[in-house]
Amino acid sequence: MRSPFSPPTPHRPLPAVAAAASLAALAACAPAPAADATPASGSAPAAAGPVDDYGALSVCGTTLCGEDGRPVQLKGMSSHGLQWFEHCMTGGSIDALAQDWGADVVRLSMYVQEGGYETDPEGFTELVSSLIDEVTARGVYVVVDWHTLNPGDPNANTPAAKEFFAEIGSRHGGNGNVLYEIANEPHGVSWASIKSYAEEVIPVIREHDPDSVVLVGTRGWSSLGVSEGSDEQEVVDDPVDAEQIMYTFHFYAASHHDAYLSALDRASQQIPMFVTEFGTQEYTGDGPNDFESAQRYIDLMEERGISWTNWNYSDDHRSGAVFEEGTCDAGGPWSGDSLKPAGQWIKERIA
Ligand code: IDC
């Protein structure tokens, strides 16, 4: 069934990644096993869109691949914290993201602390679950972000993480469009501890969604360790012991320059990377935009086929929220004059 709201999204050409030497090995990738196209109970039938184009994703060399074994670069937006900005994630705003913005992927950012999941596990599970259904119905991929921030050690929330992912996996594991991000930004904790957390949580997800792609946060606020004086080598030397894994990298272009960019450049030639959060401004998600710096990252991600979601699809007062304040309460509009400069810039890069 097609979305009743607007015509199907035109098929996007696959990204021109052939030039990237690191992707040459991808030609050898075996196609992923055929997806179970049956939506999980409760999920609406998917509209034409990226999921229809690419099917079940797998990790293929250093990138994501579609069902045909060819590399896929997903581009889209992250929500803001759902405990604050649920009203920015409506049927209308998700329609706009899928159709007008042309997003391939939506990241649902569910904080664990700061008034998030821990305050109402059932309520937040229902909220995320219903938003997964909304995104799925529009034929778009979804990243379920277990948005740990403080404390920085993901092991502090392991029992809750297992409970949450078991429930989400059992409800939506049959969808074929869900990616699981198990720790937003670990910090003040060793890579060995993050890895051990990942190896505890991943089997719980795989019990319900065996072929799913899981995204693992890296040390130093998902900077591959750079912000804590390390680098990607600790991950390269000691990868998570599981299949279908990608590692996350976050950057804020006005704060993070060459050291971050080089780490992403080196890492993405060796391990599968997914940039699940970035901003064109400072690491506060606020302040002046540095579009020149941001474009260098966009170019690198394009060259290497690194998928990304930008922070964030809300009307928060900060410069990194794509909409002007008040847009969400007014029910849009979800483009045009209601966009801040960062929103206009990123919308052009998703399209
Ligand atoms: C920021 C939000 C802000 C909130 C703060 C604390 O924009 O409203 O008060 O978190 O939770 C991250 C985090 C992300 C941050 C974002 C911008 O993953 O939660 O959002 N950021 O500071 N890492 C680097 C930057």
From TrEMBL:
PROSITE patterns: GLYCOSYL_HYDROL_F5, PROKAR_LIPOPROTEIN
Top enzyme category: hydrolase
EC number: 3.2.1.4
Protein name per its UniProtKB record: cellulase
Pfam family, one: Cellulase
Domain Glycoside hydrolase family: 66-315
Family, as annotated: Belongs to the glycosyl hydrolase 5 (cellulase A) family.
UniProt xrefs under SUPFAM superfamilies: (Trans)glycosidases
Catalytic activity, as annotated: Endohydrolysis of (1->4)-beta-D-glucosidic linkages in cellulose, lichenin and cereal beta-D-glucans
Assigned keywords, A-Z: Glycosidase, Hydrolase, Signal
